[in-house]
Amino acid sequence: MANNLLAGKRGIIFGALNEQSIAWKVAQRCHEEGATFVLSNAPLAMRMGEINKLAEQCNAPIIAADATIVEDLEKVFSGAVEQLGGKIDFVLHSIGMSPNIRKGKHYGELNYDWFQKTLDISALSFHKMLHVAEKQDALNEWGSVVALSYIAAQRAFLDYTDMSQAKAVLESIARSYGQRLGTQKKVRVNTISQSPTKTTAGTGISGFDAFYEYADRLSPLGNAPAEACADYCVSLFSDLTRYVTMQNLMHDGGFSTTGISEAMVEAITHATKEA
């Protein structure tokens, strides 16, 4: 149900690929809540995805950009301000990719050139966005910037490999730039640590289905779906959360603070008996 929480607000949403992606759901919810925004993704991702369909649904212009290239990001922010008719009120960073994961490299055999690419795409791109926004003075006072993270930034998870370090860097950037932009312009910067979600990127990780089921059984509320994450993003873009900044906000159904659940005990007991 729409409540016009974002009426009159302008934004930029990075990373919408297809209907399974969280950024896609965020764009739909922002549109429902009255926002106008620009969509952006890398040219290759745009060819692989369905972003034109989303743009039509949301009446949103598209500005292609490689988020690792500062000059591309400069075009996105200046273009968004021009096309939307004013400074930006919210930004979503929903970008992450590991060549090592795509190539099936285990953590002990990482290709370091690919590792640097993982960090550049998944974390440093966030710093570059905020750097460009600051230099162009593109953000309105009390604006909100959100990046999507994952609990592997704090805990070790098999097969998440170098993305764990990327998410840790991402969260650190949010704290450091949150302090800077908060002092300068009351802009808040946060990350959302989302449940495992069946997106194109998520399901590309080896063993994803098993861990998805594990997290769902362990979480008191179950895994948070992409639609619920979109709702959470809307709340952080709205004026209702003006004093929330520099936080890594857990959106995981309680997974991060649960030791063990009855469902997990029953599953382990059953498996042990069968063995």
From TrEMBL:
InterPro entries given in the database record: Enoyl-ACP_Rdtase_NADH, NAD(P)-bd_dom_sf, SDR_fam
Family from the record: Belongs to the short-chain dehydrogenases/reductases (SDR) family. FabI subfamily.
Iron keyword on record: no
Database matches in SUPFAM superfamilies: NAD(P)-binding Rossmann-fold domains
Species of provenance: Hymenobacter oligotrophus
Keyword field contains Signal: no
Name of the molecule in the record: Enoyl-[acyl-carrier-protein] reductase [NADH]
Keywords: Fatty acid biosynthesis, Fatty acid metabolism, Lipid biosynthesis, Lipid metabolism, NAD, Oxidoreductase
Pathway the protein takes part in: Lipid metabolism; fatty acid biosynthesis
Uppermost EC category: oxidoreductase
